[in-house]
Amino acid sequence: MIEHAPWIGMNYQIGISGQRICIVGHSHHHSGPDREDFTIDIVYDFISGELKRNSFFPQIKGYFEILDDATFWNRVMFFNFLPDCIGSKNERYGAGTTEQLARGKERFLRIIRETKPNLEKVFVFTTKGWRNFPRTIEEVSGKGKIPLSSEFPEFSWGTYAVGDHIVMAFGLRHPQGARGEVMKSAVRQILDKPLKDI
Known about the structure:
By secondary structure, this protein is an alpha/beta fold. The chain starts with 6 loop residues before the first strand and ends in a 6-residue tail after the last helix. The model has no long low-confidence stretch (mean pLDDT 88).
């Protein structure tokens, strides 16, 4: 069974604003054969300029206000919630199969456990994916998903325990149709948010 390996930039340990972060999208679509290196190849093709028709990667980079594609994507980890391609271009807006969603939850938790050095913040740029994410500590305790702030009530966050380490995850909207200034402001607020203690 195919599972896309995450992209881990060569300067991931340096991070963004001194923080090791992960960017999560929803899914890849493709009509050809799927392969484990699909995500790695897509990000590499974008950085090298071979992938010209893509709006997701430049918009995400723009929210962090870093001008150079290679600088940004080499300082983050990236993967999609769905572990393999959702299907062809005609299926790109789908939610994924029940099996893909279950594998996506397990895979997310496995990736954040295995990430070295410890991951600190996860930016989930997909409302559809965020709805299907594993339950956070706050949700399990009955608090539900916590709004990011009164300024951004539509965005929420929660935490995951990874051994004695806490990872903060933030549910944001997909760049398609999102207002750039709102997204930039939300990203700044998240980067400024202190890491939550256990």
